[in-house]
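A protein record in our archive is deliberately plain, so that people and models can read it alike. The tokens are whole numbers drawn from a learned vocabulary of local backbone shapes. For reference, a complete record is included directly beneath this paragraph.
>
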Amino acid sequence: MKNHKPILFITAGDPLGIGPEVTVKALQDKRVQKACTPIVIGEPNTLKKAGLTSDLASLLAVESTADKPTTIGPSKWGGEISFKALKLACKLAERYQTSVVTAPVSKQSWGKAGIDFTGHTEFLREYYGKTALMMFVSADLHCALTTEHFSIKDVPNILTKNRIVQAGKDFADALKKLGIKNPHIAVSALNPHNGDDGRFGREEKEVILPAIKALQKAKIHVQGPYPTDSLWDKHIKGHFDGILCMYHDQALLGLKLAAKKPVVHITAGLDFLRTSPTHGTAFDIAGKNQANPASMIEAILFAAKTK
């Protein structure tokens, strides 16, 4: 009996960024070809220029009504193409019950194209009416975000008990799907020194701790809140299966310093799995054959092996 490889839909991201390059380089990796049947969605000329051939993957072409710019950078052209590719990939993933891997998009390009989302996760959350948790994985390291792309000054107002509880439940479910039967989750504090008994802020006592108690009541193994500066060391040593962070850089700074293997970005809580690399469009090196495909390769392999 033949071992059928899973079909994966891979969006090439902003065509003026490094998305086409890292997509093609990832497809040239023998592990990727062995793990899945890739179908790439993106702008055909930039992908072919990057080296895409029919031997590497099938191509679903996406075009823009805007004129292609003569310089590399954020553009309406790139925004329209990357957004159309994402929407098509999601529809196909639902239809064929498979996963989506997304190369980087530019928020500035989306803005120029009139697309009112700050990133993939925000679009997926609104489009599917799901909580759509943003989480990251590197080997045995796992972390998730309670809030994502917000100004630091807005986080205390956005952070609510219900938001933390929902993120904690989604994180626990996602970790179980990764094979961790009873995940032990650490919850980070918001303020320095865990708020220092209210001296540096009261969110730990008034918002985070009540959320932790609600999660514990729901039989989810969580503890905290903990000061983030010591929390990552505990996670590295295996004291916890994952960290639920309060804001973006709490997660990404610690993870990128601690990770020994490429980091994969996951959108959990959808009816299909979406993964992506953890870098951006890198317009400054686009077209120079300098982009490292390691994170894109890992995102594809992770999607191929995860149901």
In short: The chain has a mean pLDDT of 92. The two ends are 21 Å apart (CA to CA).
